[in-house]
């Protein structure tokens, strides 16, 4: 695995933690606040996501296509979202997470089966 790919995946993992909290944590903690409060706080958290995600995509684009970057992002999203959903939001584990993951395995196969640009 190349250094830019490792850095890209690492940054995307970190950025996705911020993104997941920005998108969903307000549901647990700010349900009694006006939506605008949740939106403004989420934007503040999302800033950190973008500060990691933009460099990740720029670094990754030196060796990967946009489609490959997107599929990596989706795999990372599900990889972060499932533990977040189970551990932080206390949602029950569903078999649907497995099926979604298997669909992403297929997506990874199709995006990476040819030569990288």
* Biggest sheet overview: none
Q: What is the beta-strand fraction?
A: under 5%
User: What is the end-to-end distance?
Assistant: 15 Å
Helicity level, as a percent range?
Answer: over 70%
Task: Give the uncertain stretches in residue-range form.
Answer: none
Q: Mean of residue pLDDT?
A: 91
Q: Tally of extended strands?
A: 0
Count up the helices.
Answer: 4
- What structural class do helix, strand and pairing data support? mainly alpha
- Radius of gyration (CA) equals 16 Å
Shape: flat
Number of domains: 1
Order of helices and strands: HHHH
Structural description of this entry:
It contains four helices and no strands. The protein is an all-alpha fold. The protein has one domain. The protein is flat and about 50 Å long. The mean pLDDT is 91.
């Amino acid at each position: 695995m190349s250094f830019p790919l490792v850095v890209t995946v690492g940054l995307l993992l970190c950025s996705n933690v911020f993104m997941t909290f920005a998108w969903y944590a307000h549901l647990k903690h700010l349900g009694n606040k006006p939506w605008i409060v949740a939106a403004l706080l989420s934007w503040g958290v999302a800033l950190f996501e973008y500060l990691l995600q933009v460099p990740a995509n720029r670094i990754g684009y030196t060796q990967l296509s946009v489609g490959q970057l997107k599929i990596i992002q989706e795999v990372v999203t599900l990889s972060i979202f499932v533990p977040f959903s189970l551990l932080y939001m206390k949602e029950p584990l569903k078999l649907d997470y497995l099926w979604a993951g298997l669909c992403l395995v297929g997506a990874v196969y199709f995006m990476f089966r040819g030569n990288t640009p």
